[in-house]
Specification:
The chain is built from 14 helices and seven strands. By secondary structure, it is α/β, with parallel strands linked by helices. Helix 6 packs across helix 7. The protein binds S-adenosylmethionine.
């Protein structure tokens, strides 16, 4: 089943929308970059304020359809590019300053429900997981990397305790058969030592594969770095994350750039380090019980935001060093 999705027809709730609007204040006008256009939930709301402009990005080519509909309505106030947000520094920026850059990470409802993308473990058929503008699929990962590399990916990107057993079983199974989504779910089920009653056994391995296939770690790290570089002092950066690895990266990134001192005990204290961001909330903003009731997947969302303080174009060294082990793991894709 390879249904072409009609984004507008699928029920979608933009997560933490009220909270985002109160942070970015589009009612006073300004240009905003929506790095994760998806089903246009944030963009449409921001455009409902007549003095606002949007530059929207999304890597999924399905989002081009909806972007064209919105463009018809808001010719002068809406611009869309089908690119990855790590390349945000390559877009044509307007003369006026960007007021806020927003990231709503993860997958849209339509992507999860699109069985041809094979994002969820209840999808049918071939392993895919490509969000858009990818160079390899989950099927390539499962069939071309050795057990050590698979083990590392499942452990680091999925925090999967039985990563080794799953990796070994995949390598044995693939000798006789191309592994599809249902095969992988069965392999994981039979490899787990303890059954998890809270989440599906396949959740963590599937998360790891999606992160690896879409290079989500480098996308996020370089997306944040380049977003901060194009913001002028006073501009805001707002990020909604959905799992602990994403939140760990965002939290470190914001803290590191908002403190004069190094936050790692392994790094020397840099007294001359500029304060590039002002962090506005130490604790993340989370959805209300009312929002979670209406839209249960929002329960894992965490919103963090910061304001650009001082300008500096060379601040990323400590950040790249901190997440070197993840970026290195992502580079295993060179073997595919
Ligand atoms: C959770 S959805 C966004 C939903 C959106 N805020 C809304 O209300 O409709 C995430 C979207 O970000 C896109 N995306 C994820 N990673 C991306 C990246 N690195 N570059 C560009 N788009 C990305 C996905 O394709 C997906 O459409």
């Amino acid at each position: 089943m390879n249904a072409t999705i009609q984004p507008e027809k699928i029920k979608h709730y933009p997560v933490l929308l009220k909270e985002i609007i109160s942070i970015i204040t589009p009612q006073y006008g300004g240009t905003f970059i929506d790095c994760t256009f998806g089903q246009g939930g944030y963009s449409k709301k921001i455009l409902s304020y007549p003095k606002s402009k949007i530059i929207a990005l999304d890597r999924d080519k399905e989002s081009i359809i909806l972007s064209k509909e919105i463009k018809k309505k808001f010719k002068e106030r809406f611009f869309f590019e089908n690119i990855k947000f790590s390349e945000i520094n390559k877009i044509n920026l307007p003369k006026e300053n960007i007021k806020s850059i927003i990231f709503d990470l993860g997958y849209s409802y339509s992507q999860i429900k699109d069985s041809s993308k094979g994002i969820s473990f209840d999808s049918l058929g071939e392993l895919n997981m490509k969000m858009g503008l990818n160079s390899f699929s989950a099927k390539d990962v499962i069939h071309k990397l050795d057990h050590k590399d698979l083990d590392k990916i499942f452990k680091l990107f999925g925090d999967e305790k039985d990563s080794k057993r799953i990796a070994n079983k995949i390598v044995r199974f693939r000798k006789n058969k191309i592994i599809n989504t249902q095969d992988l779910v069965k392999i994981i089920d039979s490899s787990k030592r303890k059954k998890n009653f809270k989440i599906n056994n396949a959740t963590k391995t599937f998360q790891a594969l999606r992160i690896f296939v879409n290079k989500e770690v480098s996308e996020l790290i370089y997306g944040l770095i380049n977003a901060v570089k194009i913001l002028k002092p006073g501009g805001k950066i707002v990020v909604v994350t959905f799992h602990s690895l994403e939140d760990k990266i965002v939290k470190f990134f914001f803290r590191n750039l908002s403190e004069n001192k190094s936050i790692s005990r392994y790094m020397p204290k840099l007294s001359s380090k500029k304060k590039i961001l002002k962090m506005m909330n130490k604790k993340p903003i989370v959805p209300s019980l009312e929002e979670i009731k209406k839209n249960p997947p929002s329960r894992s969302a965490k919103l963090r935001f910061a304001i650009k303080d001082e300008d500096d174009q060379n601040f990323e060294e400590e950040i790249l060093k901190k997440f070197d082990y993840l970026l290195e793991t992502e580079n295993l894709s060179k073997k595919i």
